[in-house]
């Protein structure tokens, strides 16, 4: 059974496109799973922050009660009691600021991860669209021969963009982890 060379070439291109499409779909699924995993980790971290906020609120109520008691006892105006009250208020203010800063950093990391995932999804979709357009173009061209540069299997030169993106992200996350209290 002899198959016409143009038909065989067209069939090979279709098979290559389908193979690449399946590969990119699997990669997209993996990136989505990674994104969901990171989102759940950030939700857990936010839960811990909320737990800390509740503990801070309880501590604040307890300290306010203690302050009121000290103020009641110190009706005359002892300087040592006033200094203690001042230090406690400063400590509460510092703890509140630190908690707010941590919450902002968590939100910033979560937003960055979400943007990265969206960029990756868009990049894969654009790549699949470009491959589909290339396949349609190649099928519509009645040529007697095809060169290696016509193949959808040839990768672009310098395809390390994804590795560089992940390296930059890891470096940024490391800096954020070091700067968090």
Task: Give a written overview of the molecule.
The structure is a single chain. With 181 residues, the chain is an all-alpha fold. It has a domain at 16-128. The protein is built from 3 helices and no strands. The protein has helices at 5-73, 79-140, 161-179. The longest helix has 69 residues, at 5-73. The termini are far apart.
Summarize it.
With 181 residues, the protein is mainly alpha-helical.
Give me the secondary-structure topology.
Elements: H1 5-73, H2 79-140, H3 161-179
Helix pairs in contact: 1-2
User: Helix coverage percent of residues?
Assistant: over 70%
> Mind describing the biggest β-sheet?
none
Inertia-based shape = rod-shaped
Question: What fraction of residues sit in β-strands?
Answer: under 5%
The number of strands is: 0
Short key terms for the protein model shown above:
single chain; 181 residues; mainly alpha; 83% helix
């Amino acid at each position: 059974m002899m198959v016409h060379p143009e038909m065989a070439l067209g069939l090979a291109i279709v098979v290559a496109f389908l193979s690449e499409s399946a590969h990119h779909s699997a990669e997209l699924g993996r990136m989505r799973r990674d994104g969901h995993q990171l989102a759940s980790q950030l939700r857990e971290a936010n839960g811990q922050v909320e737990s800390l906020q509740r503990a801070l609120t309880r501590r604040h109520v307890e300290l306010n009660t203690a302050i009121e008691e000290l103020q009641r006892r110190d009706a005359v105006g002892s300087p040592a009691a006033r200094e203690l009250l001042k230090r406690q208020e400063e400590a509460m203010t510092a703890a509140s600021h630190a908690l707010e800063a941590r919450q902002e950093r968590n939100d910033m990391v979560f937003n960055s991860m979400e943007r990265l995932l969206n960029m990756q999804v868009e990049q894969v979709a654009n790549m699949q669209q470009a491959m589909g357009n290339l396949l349609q173009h190649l099928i519509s061209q009645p040529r007697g021969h095809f060169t290696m540069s016509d193949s959808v299997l040839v990768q672009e030169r310098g395809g390390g963009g994804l590795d560089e993106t992940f390296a930059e992200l890891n470096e940024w996350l490391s800096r954020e982890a070091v700067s968090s209290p």
